[in-house]
Amino acid sequence: MSRPLFRSAAPALFACLAGCNMHQSTLAPFGRDAADIRGMTLLLVGGAVVIFLGVAALVVAAMRAPAGRLTHDGGMRLVLWAGGIVPTVVLGALLVWTLPAMRPAPATPADLRVALVGEQFWWRVAYRPPNRPPVVSANELRLPVGRTVVLELGAGDVIHSFWVPGLAGKMDMIPGRTNRLVVRADKAGRYRGVCAEFCGLSHALMAFDVVAMPPAAFDAWLAAEARPAAPVASAPGAALFTANGCGGCHAVRGTAGTGSIGPDLTHFGARATLAAGILPMTTANVARFVRDAGSVKPGARMPAFRHLSPGDTQAIARYLESLK
Amino acid sequence: MTAPPLDDVALDHTAQNDPAVRTAQEDRLRAVWKPPAGLFLRWSDVNNNRVGIWYTLTAFVFMLFAGVLALVMRAQLAVPDNDLVSANTFNQLFTLHGSMMMFLFAVPMFEAVSIILLPQLLGARDLPFPRLSAFGYWSFLIGGVFVGGSIFFNVAPDGGWFMYPPLTTRTDLSGLGADIWMLGLSFIEVSSVAAAVELIVGVLKCRPPGMRLNLMPLYAWYILVVAVMILFAFPPLIAGDVLFEMERLLDWPFFDAARGGDPLLWQHLFWIFGHPEVYIIFLPSIALFAMLIPTFSQRHLLGYPWIVLAAVGTAFLSFGLWVHHMFATGLPKISLAFFSAASEAVAIPTGVQIFCFIATLWAGRVIWSTPLLYATGSLAIFVIGGLTGVMVAVAPFDWQAHDTYFIVAHLHYVLLGGTLLPLFGGLYYYWPLVTGKKLSDRLGRIAFWVMFAGANLAFFPMHFSGLMGMPRRVFTYPAELGLGGLNMASTIGAFLFAAGVALVCVDLCLSPTRKKGKRNPWNAGTLEWLAHPEDEDWGIRSVPLIESRYPIWDQPGFVEKVDEGRFFLPDAEEGRRETIVTTVLDARPLQVVRLGTPSFKPMFTAIALGGVFILTTYHLYWAALGCGVTTLAMILWWLWTGTAEIPEKAGKSIGHGLTIPLYISGPSSSGWWAMFITMMADATAFSGLVFGYYFFWTIHPEFPPAGPGMDGPGAFWPMAALALVLAGWAATLVARIIHARGQVSAARGLLAFGILASLASLAAGLAGPWLTDLRPTLHVYPAIVWTLAIWTTAHSGIGAIMQAYALARSLAGRMPPAYDADLHNITVYQHFLALTAIVAYATIGLFPAAA
Questions:
Q1: A:106-145 residues touching chain B, CB 8 A cutoff
Q2: What is the ipTM of this complex?
Q3: What's the pTM value of the predicted model, to 2 decimals?
Q4: Which residues does UniProt assign to the signal peptide (chain B) (predicted)?
């Protein structure tokens, strides 16, 4: 296969494969770094295919050659060139070419910082815009398109890894350390990220939504997110929420709930998914999770509330959904 | 006594012309090497042929078991949102699959095959320490069943084969499985190191006369390289295991960030082991290529010195690239660049080795055969794995690929192409050597193509599922990711691969029904093919003089001369199992060494030591202590009755006018080398702990930290302990020197003083942290100080036991000045003890003031 043909065919193949999944794939990037790395991937794959075919051709030739066709000196020259010199040159060039990509992207103090902390099996999110108080959220990351954002990654209990395949490479979240990842989303849309480091029983069920928004929309959203929950204290679910002690673990700003053990629920209803990106936001799903979180997500810390009547869990679910 | 030069040896074969003489010799050899028979007694066997076969079979069964675990996983992942197994079961499955394939199959399989092959490759009658092989085997069996069997009780380890803390060290987040992993596999690691010591000494000291290092069969070179790698790679993991269990059992916070620990320390220690591990299991397969490719090209391997240098180079580099498993942990960019470069560079020596094989096939007359089919097919798969390996060595690409199915694809291409399929090729190649019968070429080829298709169908799609966002170690994935088709293909491929493995098993099971074939069926040129289909247990009829890398091809009348006993040591006049020990570099004969005979001691020792590890898992500390004392007693009994035996005469004729000693001590003896090599491993484990101390220093601005329970151990007690260790060391050294001069009483006095000094250093070493009230659960600083102190004082204690052993040997009349191997060997230990004490006590006693 000639290089030009490959160059046109490979992206087409990837696009076709990526067609079925545009929101959690390194082949369908929406961020600057992921796009750069995809370009690198294509070239690496191309090089690997060429080398593989070359080695295969040599093996076939070696098998077919009559005895003595290759002299001892000829064989040693083959080893020297094919095994020594060519790989050294190719790998040296590869290293020089990829070194710049290992530098972290530049960021300034004026850039938005977002602190993300991995917990078994969900994500704390705190937006820290310069010169303004932090805005706490959970299980969803919103990014302004075209702006540099500094992600500060930590862990609450065990090691997790922050990975949004379409945005950038992954970065581990390690207890006792804060890792920085500088990202920039270039294409608005709704995407998905996951935990990439095995973190326990429900590691497979630890995901989150990523929403890349136009900058103006993002600013408006952040301002809204900073406000307390809409005053719907009269809803029957609100009383049940308080009476069952939900606020001991979950904060709903503007109410008596101030706990920080579980995810912040102040604008819970505005998220598209629940339980860290694994269920669509429907009343039935919320009620099911409230009733027995462990059945949805094995190992989740949230206790079961099986003693509540279906009516009560429905009411709590409706209340939570109303927290836009 | 210096070794005689071989040039002067008169190759006078006339003594062997009489068939009656030969028959009498053969009868004596047969009687000496007769294996123990009977339902129970047969398990006391220690001969390399039987132990090697038990070892191989056991590792093979563990491989099949771990493979079945993988099939269950693939069944679960066949379709999205599946619930065939629970998350809990799935996590146990993948942890056990990886751990068993690595620790219970790949490494032990190398050692098992080497135990079978090495004596044959070297024309030796057996390995230098047959009982040590048996001990290694029984340890492996007990530990393997303990770890593997845990899944039937739903308590298998479930933290991944890398066991990253704090998930695995926090007892509220992980259960018994973590202890089973840590202690069960530590036990296996001990047996792996034991086998490595055996193999290194075997290669260095048991070669046939004339086989200089540059005439050694390449497989022996690879055994040497790989065993040395095991020696330096496993101990850091053992050090990590020690810290890990201290945290789990005693709450010492090595990996707890809240109390100054750091989870990354484990990752460093694990991958300093884990990456060389990849080459530890890959190089032996290259070694199999290096044996069978010359055979099927019917010519010498091209570029012998290049291959050796490349293997050594791979080994060196493999210790310098562990960080590529940690590219996503947020390390400084400079180390990313360095480790990226090192990881890419390792492709170069690998390429050199592969092109040496290609050039050999090109230059030679290729004979198509089933083993060669396996070799070329696995090469194709391996090259793909190697190329994706270069891709993931590029840090930015790795940030995407790391911990995804792309890596699963990469590592399985490497391990199937670089370990499993070559092993099957080796199986088809060497089966006639072990059983005298060929396997079916037809079944072998069908099995190969089924496995080849299965492997590619299973693992090629994973490259895409990984890049399309599928992380590793997930028990399920949502349908919306659109990965169902790729995963279904992988599952079908996995079952296809299993069908191929089943075909190989069928072929093996049919073997007993087949007739024996001819000797050396592939017309190979290397020494191991002297093996006769009508198997004799003596190993080799006479130990040959080697003048070529392919003696069967190059040395005229070689096979007949060996068979007719015309080379060395054709007899067992004294009714003892013997083999020849030679010099390290140029293989001049030094000694006829008497080998261990069948015994249950190795098995009982392994059972007792297994008790220590297994009972500790269940927190039965007193019972574990009892087992520890039993282990010590067993070892002493084993040594006392089975080693450093004083021969009935000073020397023995091995033919051709050569008479060499039956007893040697010091650096030319195999026992001295075994001690030296073991202590290298021990020192490596210790440096893992020291690395921990300075690692914590680098991550803390203030280290040692201030505060109650953290101020210690001061300088006085560590320095006192150091002085005492050095006194004990000097006493032992002087005792050895004057003992050799005949001053036995003075030497005994010095040994007695040495015992007291060692015991006093034990007390002083612990007094430092004890009297300054360092509280190890408070912070990582007191914990690591205590650990270094305990490690060093425990070594002082063992030193005292050794000194007492030598003293007792002397008093019992078993160690006269001319037979002082015990004293030489414990002096080696004392050298290492002194070194350990200097580093440890300077670190804990002086470094705080310097920092």
A1: 120
A2: 0.94
A3: 0.95
A4: none
